[in-house]
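queue> pop job 88
queue> type: inverse folding (structure -> sequence)
queue> payload:
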């Protein structure tokens, strides 16, 4: 088939969860089909990434992402007036719509593949020119859950009001847009159920749906050999993403001091771009974005996922497991992943329980080893993209 693959992020390098999902799906589809990648790019994206993607994509077209606070204010106002989601409106870029028009007029595509909800409106634009093309939507998240959970977790009344309103707007938009696709793929059963539960106004039933978890490439990653710092706690993730920022601020304020009372030598390392300015303090190291985090990870005793908001799967857990690191996560942080408390992960949702879990690992090398080895085994057996993504074959075959 000829596939037009629409991506909200340049899917390489693999330094974020959405990129890992997009990259391995794109790579798998390109083994069977002819794929044209149309993607947004940002100022921080490197030309080498496009060169790498060109190794398996037939054609690559890149459109600059246009973001500014002035545009955000305009789209926020528009959102409040029209009751359309701000998160969708702010990614409406006329040059992207124009590029889609050029591509579909120049070439026939059998399938328009929208990666993430943000690209769904662009897929519908493409279908206007190619009404026979089939539409596939890869839903990384039940998106409305993200602002809903952020609203529940904040005490700031202004933020709470806006986030709750955004959640309501997405609750109306998300199921409606899904019903316009020929097939919707979900990362987790929890996300599918959450959005499907909103679909009662639709009499024609939910569109064909499949659950395919995010998968990694663990067989090409060697478990790390521990060295250096004995009590390093590491968080890794983009801090421009509100659930990550909220989670690490909670950890730094409420959990880390409890760890330090028992292990004064404990060191918290926070790796990720755009860290909140409030982060800092004794024992806390904020690196910002790091091209190669492996030197820090090799010294990591505990890898943390302290999230209380978000949706989909946290790829950082798959990464940590691939490296053989012991993981402590909240329930939300481990959502959608086949975790087993005390076997391949420790789960804790209160500050006290989270701190106690970290201290347990610090004090028990055997527990740390068990969690790391079992996590590694889980990702190798259950989240290898070359096995898991064969499910895409049936989805595309059924579109014919």
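queue> result:
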């Amino acid at each position: 088939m000829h596939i037009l693959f629409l991506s909200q992020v340049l899917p390489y390098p693999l330094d974020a969860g959405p990129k890992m999902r997009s990259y391995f799906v794109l790579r798998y589809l390109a083994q069977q089909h002819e794929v044209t990648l149309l993607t947004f790019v940002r100022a921080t994206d490197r030309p080498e990434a496009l060169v790498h993607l060109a190794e398996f994509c037939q054609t690559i077209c890149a459109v600059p992402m246009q973001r500014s606070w002035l545009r955000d204010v305009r789209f926020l106002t528009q959102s409040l007036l029209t009751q359309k989601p701000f998160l969708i409106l702010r990614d409406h870029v006329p040059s992207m719509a124009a590029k889609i028009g050029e591509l579909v007029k120049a070439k026939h595509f059998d399938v328009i593949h929208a990666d993430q909800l943000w690209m769904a409106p662009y897929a519908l634009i493409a279908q206007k020119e190619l009404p026979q093309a089939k539409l596939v939507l890869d839903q990384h998240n039940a998106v409305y859950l993200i602002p809903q959970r952020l609203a529940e977790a904040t005490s700031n009344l202004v933020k709470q009001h806006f986030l709750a309103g955004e959640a309501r707007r997405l609750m109306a938009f998300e199921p409606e847009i899904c019903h316009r696709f020929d097939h919707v793929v979900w990362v987790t059963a929890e996300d599918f159920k959450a959005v499907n539960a909103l679909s009662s106004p639709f009499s024609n039933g939910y569109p064909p749906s499949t659950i395919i978890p995010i998968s990694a490439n663990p067989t090409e990653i060697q478990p790390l050999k521990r060295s250096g710092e004995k009590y390093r706690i590491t968080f890794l993730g983009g801090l421009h993403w509100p659930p990550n920022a909220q989670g690490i601020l909670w950890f730094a304020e409420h959990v880390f001091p409890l760890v330090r009372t028992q292990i004064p030598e404990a060191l918290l390392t926070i790796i990720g771009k755009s860290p909140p300015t409030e982060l800092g303090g004794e024992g806390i190291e904020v690196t910002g974005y790091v091209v190669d985090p492996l030197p820090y990870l090799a010294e990591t005793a505990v890898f943390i996922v302290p999230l209380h908001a978000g949706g989909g799967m946290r790829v950082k857990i798959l990464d940590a497991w691939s490296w053989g690191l012991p993981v402590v996560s909240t329930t939300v942080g481990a959502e959608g992943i086949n975790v087993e408390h005390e076997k391949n992960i420790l789960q804790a949702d209160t500050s006290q329980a989270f701190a106690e879990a970290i201290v347990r690992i610090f004090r028990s090398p055997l527990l740390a080893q068990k969690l790391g080895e079992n996590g590694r085994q889980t990702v190798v057996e259950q989240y290898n993209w070359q096995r898991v993504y064969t499910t895409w074959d049936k989805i595309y075959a059924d579109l014919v």
